[in-house]
Amino acid sequence: MKVRKAIFPVAGLGTRFLPATKSSPKEMLALIDKPLVQYVVEEAVASGIEQIIFVTGRTKRAIEDHFDSSPELENHLAEKGKDDTLQAVRELSDMVDIYYVRQKKALGLGHAILCARDFIGNEPFAVLLGDDIIDAPTPCLKQLLDVYEHYKGSVLALEQVPHEQISSYGCVAVNRITDRVMEVTDMVEKPQPAEAPSDLAIIGRYLLTPAIFPILAQQQPGRGGEIQLTDAIKRLSHDEAVYGCLFEGQRHDCGDKLGFLKATVDLALKRDEFKDDFAAYLRHRLC
What we know:
The chain is an alpha/beta fold. The protein has a single domain (5-255), classed as Spore Coat Polysaccharide Biosynthesis Protein SpsA, Chain A (Alpha-Beta Complex). It contains eleven helices and 13 strands. It has helices spanning 36-46, 61-67, 71-79, 83-94, 109-115, 117-120, 140-151, 212-218, 229-239, 257-268, 275-286, and strands spanning 5-9, 30-31, 34-35, 51-56, 97-102, 125-128, 132-135, 154-160, 170-176, 181-189, 200-208, 242-246, 250-253. The protein has a five-stranded mixed barrel. Strands 2-3 form a two-stranded antiparallel ribbon. The longest helix is centred in the first third of the chain and has 12 residues, at 83-94.
């Protein structure tokens, strides 16, 4: 079955970016001239996703407004002859069908996925986390979709990380099938380095079969008192094969302040309109 739908869990409080996120969603922080969440939505659309559901919480209304039409703004831009900007604004509301559901309690990523169960129905689906901005010639999600099409099972995006950093991630043990595709045999949520089964971390892209939903519905809270998606996927792997894809591309962890700054520099240096001047400025500052 074709993967048509994607879940965007965006109900988190974004505490690592306070006070900037006190009244504005973390997902709306501007990376150059687009909010973080727009980069991820564009990745989903470029991968063939047709419908998106945002799992939101309080203070997230700005996300809805961003992807809605804005007649007043469009009329103003048309009157001023700003055709390029007008086109960009219109494309936001036209790029994909978007729906919204509230996660009323902060009970973890697994619970957020469960909130979208009625929207997904009995279909395979994608999950994309807005913290991870992935710069890749082939969109990261499309790479996972290619693996899904071949193996017909859930697929996790994997990245090799320094061993001392593995405690910040869900970690997997695997049997390799190819250089970049593997079957997941075990997983641990945020293990201490000495307990980690590998240096392969799960990052914010998933393709899941609907068999995950009854597992999540019965899942007991795990680490941090939350319903952990990693624990549910581990149980899923006992019933059906779960695969990992060591994706090609550069991931920017924009849930971290330093990662956000690095992403700003790296992506700015790829923009033709100011990359030369910006590179010259950086060289000057580093002298």
